[in-house]
């Protein structure tokens, strides 16, 4: 299977698996890109979910991002679900995507976590920031433009 074929299959699978999740959570998308890796993005309530396929590793993952005026956070869905108390420990989610069957199962697992954490991430910014920090999300300060004198 070529990179283009696997990206096409990936985008099709994501659309099928995430259709119900996106509708239930009020997410817009997908926005699909293939710059470095095939990535499908869904947005809603100030949160973005980026589902990506690493063809070399044979893995799929879902990164969750939240941005305020001053800060940006990004974390994988599993530690976020653990921090939210939805999952007890690591290892309960599938990332494997070495074939279409594994890809489908991994997408289903990750979409399930998205459905469970999304309401917690859209309650209010302070709660979301706290949850992101408890999940050990990558955090950085956004650059503000300062007027020149």
Report on the structure:
The chain is an alpha+beta fold. 42% of the residues lie in helices and 26% in strands. A 6-stranded antiparallel β-sheet has the order 1-2-3-4-5-6. Helix 1 packs parallel to helix 3 (100-121) and helix 2 packs across helix 3 (100-121).
List the helices and strands and how they pair.
Elements: H1 3-25, E1 28-33, E2 39-44, E3 47-54, E4 59-67, E5 71-76, H2 77-83, H3 100-121, H4 125-134, E6 138-141
Antiparallel strand pairs: 1-2, 2-3, 3-4, 4-5, 5-6
Helix pairs in contact: 1-3, 2-3
Care to give the gist of this entry?
The chain has 149 residues and is of the alpha+beta class. It contains 4 helices and 6 strands; from the N terminus they run H-E-E-E-E-E-H-H-H-E.
Counted by DSSP, the helix tally is: 4
Task: Spell the H/E element sequence.
Answer: HEEEEEHHHE
Report, as a whole number of angstroms, the end-to-end distance.
57 Å
What overall geometry do the principal axes of the alpha carbons give? globular
């Amino acid at each position: 299977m070529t990179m283009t074929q696997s990206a096409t299959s990936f985008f099709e699978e994501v659309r099928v698996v995430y259709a119900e999740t996106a509708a239930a959570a009020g997410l817009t998308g997908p926005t699909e890109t293939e710059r470095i890796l095939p990535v499908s993005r869904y947005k809603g309530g100030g949160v973005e979910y980026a589902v990506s396929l690493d063809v070399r590793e044979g893995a799929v993952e879902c990164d969750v991002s939240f941005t305020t005026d001053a800060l940006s956070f990004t974390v994988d869905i599993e530690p976020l679900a653990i921090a939210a108390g939805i999952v007890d420990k690591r290892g309960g989610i599938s990332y494997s995507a070495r074939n279409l069957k594994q890809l489908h199962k991994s997408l289903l697992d990750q979409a399930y976590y998205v459905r469970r954490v999304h309401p917690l991430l859209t309650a209010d910014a302070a709660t979301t920031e706290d949850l992101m920090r408890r999940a050990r999300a990558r955090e950085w300060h956004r650059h503000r433009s300062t007027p020149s004198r």
